[in-house]
Structures are given as structure tokens and as C-alpha cells.
Amino acid sequence: MSDAAQAGLAEADFLLRERGTSAEFGAWIVAVAFGREGSSAAFALGDGTLRLADAAEAAAGWRRIEAHDGACLDLVPDVAGGFLSGGDDGRLITVAGDGTVTELADFGAMKWVEHLASHPSGLRAASVGKQVHLLDGAGARLKTLAHPSTVGGVAFDAKGKRIAAGHYNGASLWFVNSKEDKPRVLPWKGSHQRVAFSPDGTHVVTTMQENALHGWRLTDQQDMRMSGYPSKIKSFSFTAKGRWLATAGADCIVLWPFFAGGPMGKPPLELAGGDGVLCTQVACHPQHEVVAAGFQDGLVLMAEIGSGKIVPVAAPGRGPVSALAWNATGTHLGFGTETGFAGLVDLSKR
Question: For residue 210, is pLDDT > 60?
Fold first, then answer.
């Protein structure tokens, strides 16, 4: 490697080196999440373990939690603190900040607890095959919502009143407190996977098995097809006020405008691209119009949407970025790679 290339890598690693901490966990990092209180961080691994730390003191060491007999499949912040974890052993568990594990449900050894969502109101959701199970803050099962095919993703709206699930040939919207569990079906041919509500609750967007996104405007069920990607979209994220939808799946960060009539007929904004390396993960800052992105070569960066300014966080070379998340206040950014490299960066003012 040339001196210039080495200098470039060192510069790209500046934030991780000066304001972060890192670790090698030795297994694919499936997800990273921060507790709702913002101070605890957790990484879920393909070997069934979780690694926990206080975000501000991660350099002091990580606590290893034997979470699942198999692989962790998803990890999200739990309702009151700690984390909600699902695995291919059929178990749905909570993990407190001190590492205490509590089993909420065991759906059976042959079942996968694949997609999770939680809401500050106390609601939890877990998809198992064609079903989405809703639980309350105490862990009691409230209801089971059945779908026509395997659920590819779940999400609550901002108020916690509706839950969406992606599946084959569309998405289903359910009112959580409805006495009659009959969904509003949003149809579109193909396999729909990850799902999200826009922050204002007016749109639902899914990633698809093909290299595309699909969206619906809920006021009139207007379809929005967002295509042209060279690869499958593994990650997407709305900005805090819902003006932009940031997506992975191309050799740049692709941002679709969700203002002034939405994305129909408008080209997306592209940031931080041009070298042919695929973007694999995106996460929008919880307060500002800034998006963090991870790439196939391990590069992690932040991009300011308004100015296009790019700030590197971590240099390439540590495997494809497979997990990326901000804490609730946007002071900490966590990321993980397929090779098991984990990074945590403190971006708070000093």
C-alpha cells in the first residue's frame, strides 16, 4: 500500500480512533441497538450471543450474554429499557442493561423469531412465520395477527396505534386496539420485506425481494415505485421529520424526497458515491438531516443532506457493514460488520 493510501485510511479512521472504541467479536453482527435511555449499547451476533456495554464506557469492556441456542435474528430497544431479542431457537427474550435475561415467549425449537418492533407505550411485536404476536409491557400476549405468507418485516407507527407487516403481494396495516382484527391490505405484486411508516404516518414503504422499494400514500393508496437499484435493499431509514427516505442498495446513499408531493416522478438525491462500492446500511440521525452509511468494503461515514458534506467515521477493510444505529439523542453511533468487527463512536460535544 502506498504512503498516500495509508494516510487516507488513517484519516478515515480518525473519528473511530479518537472518539470511539472497537472490538472483534468473531461472528457476524446481525444488529446493533441502543437502549431507549440512550446510554446502553448492544450488539446481536450470528453465534447467538449479545455483547452489552455502557455506551460512554465501552472501552472498559463488553459483557457477553448467551442469548440464543443458535443465531440471533433481530434486536431492538425494549419498551422500558434494555433490549428485545429474537432467535432461530424460537425464543423471544428481554435483556436488561445489567445482562439479566427474561424469556417472554418460546414459540418452539423449529420456529424463527425473525422480526421485532417495540414502542415506548409498552407494545412489543414479534413475527414468527406468518404470524405477528403482540405483547404488552408486562409480557402478556395481547393478540396474534395472521398473514397470508411469511412476514418479512414489522413496524409500529409513531403513535403506536397501528402496526404494519410486509409479506407476499403487499403489506397489511392493523389497528392495535381494534376489537375486530381485520387488516387494511396494501396490495402490490411481489415479496415485501422490511417495512416502515413515515414519521407523520401518511406513507408506508417496503423493501422488496427484487431490487426496488414500494410505497403507498395512505390518504388515497397511491402507489410509489422506487426502482433502478443494482442490488437488493437491505436497509432504509426516514429522516427525523420525514422529508427524506435514505436507502442502501446502490454505490451511494440514495435519498427519495417525501415533501412537496412525495417521490413520484422525482429523481432521488445521491450522496457519497462514485467508487462502485455498494452501500449496505443506512441510519438517519434522530434529530438532524444527517445520515450515517456503511458500505460493502467496511467504510462508515456520515453525510449532511443539505450541504452534501461527507465525514468519514471508520476506514474500509473490516468486512461489509451489516448493522448501523444511532442512540436516541444522536450522540453515539454504533456499527458492526459481517466479520464481527464492532465500533462505537461518541459524537457528543466535549
Answer: yes
